[in-house]
Structure formats: C-alpha cells, structure tokens
Amino acid sequence: MQHSRNKKLLSACFGAILFLSAFAARSAELRDIAIELVNDRYHLTSETYLDVGRESLYAVLADFELFKQFTSAIVESRNIDVDDLGRPGFFARMEGCVLFFCKSFVREGYVLLTPTAEIVAVANPEQSDFRFSRERWKLVPEGEGTIMIYDFELEPAFWVPPVIGPLYIQHALRGGAERAVDRIEALAFSEELRRKARKTVDSRSLHNYRPRGAL
C-alpha cells in the first residue's frame, strides 16, 4: 500500500517537473526582423530559431485557441467553423491605444494549412477591421529545432491618428513579434513533452499487451 502511494507521489512530482520545465526560462533566437509601411500597408517579416521540433510548433501555431497566450495585445482568440469552401476559420480580437485613442480590432477569416510546413491566416475584410490582413508561418527544420519564417501584412480599415499612429503601429508590431517568440517556443516545448509522454505510454501499453488466453 505504502509502495503504491510512493509510486503515485513520484509520478506526480515527475509530471510537475515536466510541466514547469516547459515554461522555464527559454530563449528563442530572433535572427532577423524588419517592418515597413508602404501605401498604408504594414509589412513585417522575421526569422526565428526555436529549439523545438517542427511538428510540435505546427500544432501550436495551427490552434487559434492558443493565440491569446502569445501576447497581451490579443485579448480573445478562437477557432471557428469552416467556411463554404471547407477552410478552417479563426477569430482574433486585439486592443491597443495611441495616446488617448484606444480601439478594439477584430480579425476573422480562414486558414490554409500545409501540415507541419506552413500556415496562412487570411482575414475577410467584411468581418474584420482591416482592408487586408494576411499572416504566414513557414516552418523549416534545422538540426534539433525549427526555423520559423513569419510574414505579416495588413492594411487598417479604421482611422489612424496621423504621424504618431503609424509609428505606434510599427512599434507595436515589432514589440509584439519579439515578445511572442519565447511564449510560442514554451508552448511548443510543452506540446513536445506531451507527445513524448503519449508515445511512452503507448509503447508501454503495447509492450504489456497479452492476447486473451496467452500465458
């Protein structure tokens, strides 16, 4: 009885260690980031190395339920029903302020998925606060980790305060991208641990399986 309790306690401690290690201080390597404004359209590109496998990273980025954990600017995010063409849908609401001008921004649209390699999220202008919005994550394996090439292009459909407004949006986009990469890596690392744990459990179950009637 005592042995069973000790075994459960050790199992619980091990699980806690795995959970905490997923969110321990990790640092994704942001190798390059650039942002420009051309004809009212903002364009951000970045390249980041993350010390996680491509499959786990893809699983996190393809799930809009997790996006609100990437940055505090996103206050609501979720997966929504597929559209008429069978494409998965997404919804995201952001909040931001420029001096005394504060606004909530909505993006709603569809997602194009190329499993483990690329994710593209395109907003429908009719349901969004943007005339154009397109995000793309391209995932390329490198060693034990993954290169994430991020491309974000958007054009607001709302009034932006002159001079300070465009500068703030560019600053917010850059800062948000820089802060998000470590959180994305931590979530992907946690997903990777869960995948390994499931494989271990499945492997043990298969190893211990005995056909009915076997000795």
CATH class: Alpha Beta
Structural class: alpha+beta
Give the ordered list of helices and strands: HEEHEEEEEEH
Major β-sheet, in short?
A: 8 strands, antiparallel
Q: Estimate percent helicity.
A: 25-40%
> How many H/I helical runs?
3
Number of strands: 8
What characteristic shape results from the CA principal axes?
globular
Ends apart, CA distance between termini? 27 Å
Strand order of the largest sheet: 1-2-8-7-6-5-4-3
The fourth-level CATH homologous superfamily is: START domain
Number of domains: 1
Q: What is the CATH topology assignment?
A: Alpha-D-Glucose-1,6-Bisphosphate, Chain A, domain 4
The appropriate CATH architecture is 2-Layer Sandwich
Strand content: 35-45%
Oligomeric assembly:
single chain
Question: Which ranges are low-confidence, i.e. pLDDT below 50, for 5 or more consecutive residues?
Answer: 2-25
- Over all CA atoms, what is the radius of gyration? 21 Å
**Please, what is the average pLDDT?**
84
